[in-house]
User: Fold this.
Amino acid sequence: MLKSWFTRPLWQRVTVGFALGILAGVLAGEQAAVWFKPLGDLYLNLVRMIVIPLVFFTITSSVAKLAEAGNVASLGLRTLFWFIATSAIAVLVGIAFGHLIDPGLGLSNLPLGEVKPRTIPTPLEVLIGIVPTNPIKAMADTNVLQVLFFAGIVGAALVSLGEKTAGIRTLVDQGATVVFRITRWVLQLTPIGTFGLIAWVVGRYGLASLLPLGKFIAAMYLACLFHIVVVYGGLLKVHGLKVGRFFRGAAPAMQMAFATSSSLATLPMSLRVAVEKLGVPQSYASFALPLGANVKMDGCGAIYPAIASIFIAQYFGLDLSLTQYVLIGLTAVLGSLGTAGVPGTSIVMLTLTLSTAGLPLEGIGYIIAIDRVVDMMRTMTNVTGQILVPVIVAKEERILDQAVYDGNVETHTPAGEAVLVAAE
Assistant:
């Protein structure tokens, strides 16, 4: 029976964990935090344990391979272009659904939650902060951007030294192989982690606490779903890629993002599905996905600030001018790049957007109570975009493994590991 469970596709096992989590949360109520949240916390700790080794070894190894291929600049520029372009579209989607649903109209006397003040770094501070003064401390603090920078420098040095460092390059490649094996093992626990996290969220919030802000939650979920299905699906169509195949391949990462509300926690799964299910070369995926997990935030950095700004303006009875809409758009598109690596990206981005547009910051307190519920959908949107961009860039650069993407080539599992790795 155990063998039969592990041979099922991972997305199916995660779906079962998700459904059971909802049921357990409804039955347990507030006790879900005591009974089930530890399962989710343990799973998140395991995932976080492998994020930094995964980023360091894969980036160091991939820089050398990309340098040898000679297309680093083209891949980097195309990746940044699509990061920005899809974020710009996401802002328009957020504004459109904000006015379609009008989430702030007809509301009054909402409870005001406590909002901790956020220090927003300047673009120069962010740029300087990417360079670590102590790489070991950057790893200990899980500062992915600093680790990414350091790993890139190490990879470039290995390339420049050529055969003198052949042994170290082999060691780095072997280190990446070891980390990937550990990652496979940890990701098999995703259904259990999903069960614990979803049971806790359902038990903590319940339906009654969500009703006052139901229109705001609906606007966020519908806008994100529209962006994922219509915008991302349309881009895949334009690039001649099968839409259904992409979502089937990305499903495990999307489910994990929804449950964990963390792009970084989902990064190991995102890397796995991008390479093994969607045909993105390992060397490019190892560069693009860690970068995207820090700067590619269509849900948190584009759709959410747009809808939240409209909600707050409507709640306070303010009319937004065309200039304010332009400022919201520019801040949302460029802000995620400027707040990369800053904890609490969604609140930082919303603070930055409201400040720029001249809207009252205390409005954040009215929607912070349901932030975790909204964050699940925001993060799923973020992660889907983080996977989509490498796929379409790889297609444009003609390095996408079309046979893997189309599902014509199966991922081969080493002997003796059939039970540990899902036959997806």
